[in-house]
Amino acid sequence: MAPDSRGTTPGTRPGVRILVVGGGYVGMYTALRLQRKLKQRLKSGDAEIVVVTPEPYMTYQPFLPEAAAGSISPRHVVVPLRRVLNDCTIVIGEARRIDHAKRTATVTTLATGEDGTGALEIAYDEIVIAPGSVSRTLPIPGLAEFGIGFKTVEEAIGLRNHVIEQMDIASATRDPAIRDAALTFVFVGGGYAGVEALAELEDMARYTARYYHNIKPADLKWILVEASGRILPEVGETMGTYAIGELRGRNIDVRLDTRLDTCEDRVAVLSDGSRFPTRTLVWTAGVKPAPLLAATDLPLTERGRLRCTATLGVEDMPHAWAAGDAAAVPDLTASEPGRETAPNAQHAVRQAKVLADNVLASVDGRPLKEYRHAYVGSVASLGLHKGVAHVYGRKLKGYPAWLMHRTYHLSRVPTFNRKARVLAEWTLSGLFKREIVSLGSLEHPRAEFELAAGGGSGTPGLPGPGRQKGPGESPDDPRKDS
């Protein structure tokens, strides 16, 4: 599409076009508010909202640990964008470059490689840049080959299947070394993602062990590696210390002021000299801005985030807006100057509301509002009926904190449909036993057919040479073939 052909591609509506890049917290909530405010203009064709997102859904990430533990169905932690943003034009694809000087974004879609027409060039009048973040990795030997992330629903479900598969391997093998490595689970990163994922999966695996004749909960080895001297810094030092005691009380090895030096050959070597043969290494040690930001002509901070004003506009770039993980937004409530708002969901959802209103104000020539929100605190789950919270200066732990965690996030998950489904699943999980089934074959649904059609050696239904390799597996990975 040529830069001057606004209103013809991807939609056919003339008038102002607002391009939203990203379908996460900021992207979805901004588009949702714009959709409500511009309802009449959208119907008349005076406005168009285009949302570019790599996935057709928004993932409610605080529920990923419970999805991994089987407490919530994976489909219920995501919100289908086409249903929620029914008045927007949804483009499933990746924004590769933004040329704000020309007001164009270069986008590749699922059809780009099929039809041979190349990437789309979508022109816009206003742009909201909210591509989120990606895992921040380090050049640690073996990490790229064997590490497992925990940012997407696919990774969460894959990790659940993987943990149960390791228990199957440990139960079946006659090699003590393979058994010990299969039952050793190393998590790197003591923030929300690492602690909640480890706590929920340890809970699930401990429960699952009762159904194995030769695995006891004490056989499972869980290790949390954190480079700083504390975990869960968002809930405060006191609650963080309590969380460490709670985890260690469950025989979870919490290593503070410790780094992962290498994980080559499936051996996790820590900076304190410890060595742990393991088949599971989960990396949750922080995030970094999406690579798209480096492919723009917009100003960035030294950390690679978009330099924004308190009105959520990109500095010195009219008609460009950003919030969430991608934006460095000044915190007007902070006592010390120069402080930025934390890149978390609490700010992202609230920023989206102000951002949408400011986009409309910019279009209509009205004054802009500044974003101002004092951080109210945090809640974290440590497994079923266990948690920590520090909200409005009050500290809670144990069951009350866990209940607050669930109540808060149930109130925040988008749409009544998802709220009702999640609440129903929580209710049913309290009445019935946990699901302990691994559906790892879902990751490679054609493997069995390929094996049968190719006539390769092996028995259909059992692992064989025709199986494709999964996330975190090396080319000669024996994860399922041991």
Automatic annotation (TrEMBL):
Region Disordered, annotated ranges: 449-482
Pfam families: Pyr_redox_2 (PF07992)
Domain named FAD/NAD(P)-binding: residues: 17-351
Record keywords, A-Z: FAD, Flavoprotein, NAD, Oxidoreductase
Protein family membership: Belongs to the NADH dehydrogenase family.
Protein name as annotated: NAD(P)/FAD-dependent oxidoreductase
Source organism per UniProt: Streptomyces anulatus (Streptomyces chrysomallus)
